[in-house]
Write a structure and sequence with these properties.
The chain is α+β, with helices and mostly antiparallel strands. It has 6 helices and 10 strands, in the order H-E-E-E-E-H-H-E-E-E-E-H-H-E-E-H. A 5-stranded antiparallel sheet has the order 8-1-2-9-10. Keywords: Cytoplasm, Nucleus, Proteasome.
Length: 250
């Protein structure tokens, strides 16, 4: 039934569907997965790095995790070039707000303004939707720690645990079973690693295929965004029994 109705983003089908927006969501379903989980003392973001070739130079910079402002970070699933444009837009909006009001931008307000931009690309001819979904992790004085998920249509919602990208349905069902409201950050990290190891396409989870970031408050009440190094990830994977420790050679 998509015939003729999927040539433009501006045409509704007789069933009331926008096929181009749905196709954009399908593109995200093929991307490396990203998972976000809310803890009582922070937010954890974890992402799967897709290694397409052994010959590819592995990037030392983050591929799935991006810091937007001191109090907001995001995980990305989808077309990275699209994501870069939106992340730059979000960073500029956050800095403009800080410059104007001398305080950090509320997390939901930042997410909403970015989703308004995404929605605009579904309503005008000659444009295509952004093929990217975000998980936003943040903290503000209004609502404390927050986790939001947004998709190409411009919709967003607050979540306690969410997954986007490949195998997100399987990840979501595991999260639904195992998530606890009062979980600590350490427990949430363990759950995130467990979910990713069970839903990834590759057989084994290693530090090279993984990115893990945490957002939490320091004792001085400032927001800290911490990205785990490969060595730290390897120790975490061994600790939680996902990989075997490497034998020390004498």
């Amino acid at each position: 039934m998509s015939r003729r109705y999927d040539s433009r983003t501006t045409i509704f089908s007789p069933e009331g569907r926008l096929y181009q927006v749905e196709y954009a969501m399908e593109a995200i379903g093929n991307a490396g997965s990203a998972i976000g989980i809310l803890a009582k003392d922070g937010v954890v973001l974890v992402g799967e790095k897709k290694v397409t070739s052994k010959l590819l130079q592995t990037s030392s910079s983050m591929e799935k995790m991006y810091k937007i402002d001191d109090h907001v970070a995001c995980a990305v699933a989808g077309i990275m070039s699209d994501a870069n444009i939106l992340i730059n837009t979000a960073r500029v909006q956050a800095q403009r707000y800080t410059f104007m009001y001398q305080e950090p931008m509320p997390v939901e307000q930042l997410v909403q303004s970015l989703c308004d931009t995404k929605q605009g690309y579904t309503q005008f001819g000659g444009l295509r939707p952004f093929g990217v979904s975000f998980l936003f992790a943040g903290w503000d004085t209004n609502h404390g720690f927050q986790l939001y998920m947004s998709d190409p249509s411009g919709n967003y919602g607050g979540w306690q645990a969410a997954a986007v990208g490949a195998n997100n349905q399987a990840a979501q069902s595991i999260l639904k079973q195992d998530y606890k409201d009062d979980a600590t950050r350490e427990e949430v990290v363990q759950l995130a690693i467990k979910v990713l190891s069970k839903t990834m396409d590759s057989t084994s989870l290693t530090a090279e295929k993984l990115e893990l970031a945490e957002l939490y408050l320091t004792p001085s009440k400032s927001v800290k965004y911490h990205v785990h190094s490969p060595d730290s990830l390897t120790k975490l994977l061994v600790k939680h029994g996902v990989t075997q420790p490497t034998a020390e050679t004498s």
